[in-house]
Amino acid sequence: MLKQILVGLALTSALSAAAFAQEPKAGGVINAVIQPEPPGLMVGMVQNGPTQMVAGNIYEGLLRYSPKLEPLPSLADSWTVSEDGKVYTFKLKSGVTWHDGKPFTSADVLFSIDFLKQTHPRARGNLAQLDKVEAPDATTVVFTLKQPFGPFLGIFEVGSLPMIPKHIYEGTDYKTNPANNTPIGTGPFMFKEWQKGSFIRLVKNPNYHIKGKPYLDEIYWHVIPDAAARSVAFETGKVDVLPGGSVENFDVPRLTKLKNVCVTGAGWEFFSPHSWLWLNNRSGPTANKKFRQAVMFALDRNFAKDVIWNGLGRVATGPSGSSIKYYSNAVPEYFYDPAKAKALLKEAGYNGEKVRLLPLPYGETWQRWAEAVRQNLQDVGINVEMIATDVPGWNQKTSEWDYDIAFTYLYQYGDPALGVGRNYVSSQIAKGSPFNNVEGYTNPEIDQLFADGAVAFPDTKRTDFYAKAQKILVEDVPVAWLLELQFPTITRCNVKNLITTGIGVNDGFRDAWIDK
Amino acid sequence: MLSFVAQRVVKAVIVLLAIVVLNFFLIRMAPGDPAVVMAGEAGAGDQIFISQLREKFGLDQPLPVQLFKYVRGIVSLDLGFSFRQQMPVSKLILDRLPATLLLTGTAFVISLALGILFGTLAARFAGTWADSAITVLALIFYATPLFWVALMAILLFSVTMDWLPSFGYETVGANYTGLAHVLDVAAHLIMPATTIGLFFMATYARMTRASMLEVKRLDFVKTARAKGLRDSVIQRRHVLRNALLPVVTLAGLQAGTLVGGAVLTETVFAWPGIGRLMYESLLQRDYNLLLGVFVVCSAMVLAFNLVTDLVYRSVDPRIEYAT
């Protein structure tokens, strides 16, 4: 099973290398799966996973990012950074129009910044270091920061900072603007039709600012709520693209065995979803560092990777994923060692108190994983009680700290200052939200290291701060890191160039084409 | 008869209002609210974001105020607004209702027709192998989980034989019109409707069989036989007609629950109906939408009960309208 996937992966990369040599062909329709149905497509106000996946075709950001996370031009043609790292000047591409024909200018950029500060929690955080933004002319935008902010060039991706049309939203109530249901962007595809419960239909933007692109005529995103039915839809040829997470992992080997089917784990470099167990640092056995270390030694993470995730992903070494900046592997190592775990439990004085384990209610794969973890923990003598919840229940229990051990995974957005620090610094402890320092870890040294790392200039100075932070965190085990996840994207092999950047399917189908 | 209907409608409205209030509190007893769910799905959410959402949903107001506003809306036939879907609840439900009515209506007809047919046959051949075969078959369909039957049907008819489409209401992007469209929808309808139909068939078959065997022993059947009527006439006009009363009762009760019963089938077949809407709005704690679906379903149950009472009368003229 595992071997086949690896072969599949190798084949895909070979094929995509060959695809660059081929001349793209225009025309055709792609049928993809979207799961679950997004609540809306106005990505400036709704940031749900499925929203971002569809909206990445309609909207655009100023930049895109390569699989190595280097910035690439998108709506911005070029950019310069001042000597002191405080002033970023972007040159916008000229001749770009919105889907309704109005020109896209620097005024839209200024408006978008203002708009997103009100509606987009992540953008609000990312823009905290922004002092002012100005537009000297129609194609120039100048960002001035209060102080150098290392990850600044990493916040312009379409999901993080989408461009919003000023002429449609200015002076209206954003939340109730009827245009929210008929999104207008600058992207390669235009919104056409949404039959709730059935499908979302996007059509080619004939006036797209890159001549000849996009190649596809239409994209249908099908809403199929049942995971087994989604894999059947692919199997019977009704659907050509299954984005990561569309089918249960145990179906992946079967689907990839089919003729003319390609699978790839690429396209997750920017988000680099990182999974871990939140260990409640406040109370109970998990408040003891030795107990938490014992958990790390008790977990057979290679088993989880090979069996539950079909060999996709990597065993995590610490708080940072290996594909994001300033990753360091000079950290203490935790390997599967039940004997050591038992010894540590003894040292911690653990006397068999009940520990509540909260699985992530995202389908069978996560359920199986929770069962494997329970088995691992029980094997070393930890008394585990599994708590069953649905998604809202999980959100409430974790955000109100009502758990001992809880599964989760978070995106890292390419830079420790954007997606890693938030889970460990004490200023991020806030009841009522499940995406911050939920475990309640406090360490002034870590707070300082992340604070310094974010603003150190030039970038070479940032390395030391993050290397040190990673070492301390891995020693302290505020959470038990599991895997760097890779969600397989499954396609028919004649769908070419679907994934070309580090943002994967979320970056839109701009470059994709069908080989007939 | 008119006053009977009028009185029943008034009672129904009162029951409906009680259901609304009860549901309102039941939903809010579930952990988590729509703001937390949306923040969770976004993978980000600071305090400002969540409180903005709560304000938008009206969740920042005290519970009695929320209830008052909601009931006031219901009384003026306004089911409220789904902030999650950015659409009025009534529009969302009306968009989905036809698909569900088509699916469950077809399933209802299938189950009733097959149920009565097989029940009659089983009674006619009571004690023989045919009787046993029908009973066993009906029980198997009744005992097997709906989603499993659905998946097996998909495996057989979509994957292996490639006869029927496996998901959806129509072929997306085909833009069929006229007869082609009708046939396309029908092809999509066969599997889900039969799946539900076979499940409900079992109860009707069992009920018809038992009831017919009972009626068969009654004196008026003996009289009919003594008169020298043909057996087929006795079975149809004397036995079946009288045996159908309990089946009508059951059908009336089940007609109302068919909407709810379609949740699993609609999910497996990606049928864009109201059952799925209900399930999804529950998982997303979309309070207004969920309540709206409940109200519509409850209203349908009440309406079907009324219709059942009227059907009784036409099946058995001895029953009178008491109020």
Descriptive report:
Chain A is an alpha+beta fold. In chain A, 30% of the residues lie in helices and 19% in strands. Chain A has helices at residues 2-21, 49-55, 106-119, 121-126, 166-169, 227-235, 252-257, 289-298, 301-308, 338-348, 364-379, 391-399, 416-419, 444-455, 460-476, and strands at residues 29-34, 63-65, 71-73, 76-81, 87-92, 130-137, 140-145, 189-195, 199-204, 218-223, 241-242, 261-264, 274-279, 314-315, 354-358, 383-386, 405-410, 479-484, 489-492, 495-496, 513-514. In chain A, the strands form 6 sheets. Chain A has a 6-stranded mixed beta sheet with strand order 14-18-13-17-15-16. A 4-stranded mixed beta sheet of chain A has the order 1-10-9-8, covered by helices on one side. The longest helix of chain A has 20 residues, at 2-21. Residues 1-19 of chain A have low confidence and may be disordered. With 323 residues, chain B is mainly α. Chain B is 78% helix and 1% strand. Chain B is built from 13 helices and 2 strands; from the N terminus they run ααααββααααααααα. Chain B has a two-stranded antiparallel sheet with strand order 1-2. In chain B, helix 5 packs antiparallel against helix 6 (129-143) and helix 5 runs parallel beside helix 13 (287-315). Chain B is globular. The model of chain B has no long low-confidence stretch (mean pLDDT 87). Classes of the chains: A alpha+beta (516), B mainly alpha (323). Chains A and B meet through helix 4, strand 10, helix 6 and helix 12 of A and helix 2, helix 3, helix 5, helix 7 and helix 12 of B.
